[in-house]
Specification:
Elements: H1 4-7, E1 10-12, E2 17-18, H2 19-27, H3 33-40, H4 53-64, H5 85-89
Antiparallel strand pairs: 1-2
């Protein structure tokens, strides 16, 4: 059992997801990083998981009694680095 103060720690700062929320999701049956990503939006903020995904993988491994290298990483879909939406909408004209 994790003490209450520890459970309130924020693991994913971009999406404001706490340790408690992650543990509850795992207990509900979300047992892969892809499932946790879809359910809690971890790794979908500005850092695109570069800050929190390793932390969540460690939490998941401990909770499931697995080694960290047994945890499958989420599917990476381009763009790998954040892109400003305005860049995607730019229109170049031939003047």
């Amino acid at each position: 059992m994790i003490d209450q103060d520890k459970e309130e720690e924020i693991v994913c700062r971009c999406e404001d997801v706490s340790l408690k929320e992650i543990l509850e999701a795992i207990d509900k049956g979300y047992t892969t990083l892809d499932q946790l990503k879809r359910y809690l939006r971890i790794g979908m903020g500005h850092c695109q998981g570069r800050t929190c995904m390793r932390l969540v993988a460690g939490i998941l491994a401990r909770r499931l009694g697995k080694k960290l290298d047994e945890i499958e990483w989420p599917t990476v879909r381009p763009p790998v680095l954040p892109v400003e939406i305005a860049k995607l909408a730019e229109v170049k004209t031939d003047d």
